[in-house]
Design brief:
Blueprint (H helix, E strand, L loop, with lengths): L8 H25 L4 E6 L3 H16 L3 E2 L8 E6 L4 H13 L1 H6 L4 E6 H4 L1 H10 L5 E3 L7 H11 L3 E3 L20 E5 L1 E2 L10 H5 L3 E2 L2 H13 L4 E5 L16 H9 L6 E5 L8 H9 L6 E3 L7 H6 L6 H14 L4 E8 L6 H14 L3 E6 L16 H24 L5 E9 L7 E5 L4 E4 L9 E9 L3 E7 L1
Parallel strand pairs: 1-2, 1-3, 3-4, 4-5, 5-6, 7-10, 10-11, 12-13, 13-14, 17-19
Antiparallel strand pairs: 8-9, 15-16, 15-18, 16-17, 18-19
Length: 473
């Protein structure tokens, strides 16, 4: 029998006990000062990190903290970090460095750094020695221990460094403070077993652990009942869902049952690995009522030589067969991907093969990155591509994809699309913005009442990255 990846109930209860203990402390503080303590949560990285931060914020509220929007107002600062690229780590460290003056002004301020970056031993040691004003540190497996570590810090006064757990488990029942009232993240699994040669995720997130189907379905059903309109299922590789349980129940089965939930909502998922993108999964999507015809399928490179060096376990022929089947079953599918430019050993021909694949597949959108060596991964030891060559190739990739995206978006001009409105645009206060089923952004003249609702927008013009249209009455 496969061992359950779920945190034992007594450990979940322990977390709640520490939350209650901290809440009583904050209530006493309020009685003595007339002020509420505040917490600020800052997130770097992927959607999985955002989902984790919503739980961190939920625990803060449960402990009696008010969530604030500026670190200057906080009594507790929580920085949830990312390790996927060097730039993300340096940015997080730079921000943490800026908090030194806040600690000098307010010695009672508690600063916590958590997440993927500090799960790496060298980064944890770096913070220990170079950032003495950081009070405690914990890794991705210790999310449920956040209240316990906070109480320990406040009661004992000593700095705490807890980057790893003996075992990575799924903690159910932690409070959540969602950033939106109509869009939601739902983590369905954690960790990764793929060990792509460039990627740090398996080392900082542990092996794959799937949540129980009944727990996922209960969470999604509750969100739909609360009026959430756009729900994204998360995992480092959602296509692997269920494989660790050994029961034969897979991601397609979960999607089919979630699609059966009644309500007006759109269901999405990310991220997928091509080696596990089955015809069964695509068939379920094509026959569904709620699953968006949108698929994020990271290709990473169009060269079989590089894909092998990346340890991706598929080749371009396999990738193209998935795309072909997907478009046969869902002609309207929006297809997006990830590309890494300048992976170690990438020749000019390898890069040209990638550009050729872009021309063949014609992605709607591309998330492209210049390769960044990650300490402890096999690719770090390989011969690196010259930075100037990487930058030049990156610009060529962006130019080609920009042209493809522009051409694809022109086909939508004149169509009327259903858009979930996000409110006033951050870039232009005269317009409202929202996302289509294909997750493309659309700008239009809206009204405050539109926020969080589906509206229909006629697309009047399009560029490579957005639609501009008129809301239909």
């Amino acid at each position: 029998m496969t061992k359950s990846p779920v945190l034992p109930p007594e450990l979940t209860q322990k977390s709640h006990d520490f939350m209650a203990r901290m809440r009583r402390e904050n209530e006493r503080y309020y009685e003595g000062t007339g002020k509420n303590r505040s917490a600020f949560v800052l997130t770097f990285g992927c959607q999985q990190n955002e989902a984790d931060s919503e739980r961190l914020a939920g625990m803060c509220e449960e402990m009696g903290y008010k969530i604030c929007s500026e670190p200057e107002s906080a009594d507790l600062i929580v920085v949830n970090t990312c390790a996927i690229r060097e730039h993300a780590e340096q940015k997080a460290l730079s921000i943490v460095g800026q908090y030194k003056h806040l600690k000098a002004k307010n010695p009672a301020l508690i600063i916590c750094v958590c997440g993927c970056m500090v799960t790496q031993e060298h980064r944890c040691e770096d913070i220990k020695h170079r950032y003495p004003y950081v009070d405690f540190v914990f890794g991705t497996a210790s999310l449920h221990r956040f209240p316990e570590l906070l109480v320990e810090k406040l009661e004992r006064g000593k700095r705490i460094f807890h980057p790893t757990e003996e075992e990575y488990l799924v903690a159910e029942g932690l409070p959540v403070r969602r950033e939106s009232t109509y869009r939601a993240w739902v983590s369905i699994m954690y960790g990764c077993n793929n060990f792509c040669s460039y990627c740090i995720v398996p080392y900082v997130r542990g092996r794959e652990r799937s949540r129980r189907p009944e727990d996922v379905k209960a969470e999604v059903r509750e969100l739909v009942e609360q009026g959430y309109r756009d729900i994204t299922l998360l995992g480092q590789n959602v296509n692997s869902y269920g494989k660790d349980s050994g029961g034969g129940y897979d991601f397609a089965d979960l999607l089919r049952e979630l699609d059966a939930i009644e309500g007006d909502f759109t269901l999405r998922f990310m991220t997928s690995h091509p080696k596990d993108a089955s015809n069964k999964l695509i068939d379920v999507m094509a026959a569904s009522r709620h699953i968006a015809h949108q698929f994020h399928l990271p290709m990473q490179s169009g060269s079989d030589t590089i894909l092998h060096a990346m340890n991706r376990h598929y080749d371009t022929k396999r990738y193209l067969s998935i795309v072909q089947y997907m478009r046969e079953k869902m002609p309207d599918v929006t297809l997006t991907s990830d590309i890494i430019v300048g992976f170690p050993g990438e020749s000019e021909q390898d890069f040209e093969d990638t550009l050729s694949m872009l021309q063949t597949v014609r992605f709607d959108m591309l998330y492209s990155f210049i390769y960044s060596p990650r300490k402890g991964t096999p690719a770090e030891e390989l011969e690196q591509v010259d930075p100037k060559i990487k930058s030049e190739r990156f610009e060529r990739l962006l130019a080609l994809q920009g042209q493809i995206a522009f051409e694809k978006n022109q086909a939508f001009v004149g169509q009327t699309l259903r858009v979930l409105c996000d409110g006033v645009s951050k870039n232009n206060s005269a317009l409202y913005s929202g996302r289509t089923e294909g997750n493309k952004i659309a700008f239009f003249e809206g009204a405050p009442a539109d926020t969080g609702k589906f509206v229909f927008v006629r697309i009047d013009r399009a560029d490579a990255f957005a639609f501009y249209g008129t809301k239909q009455q």
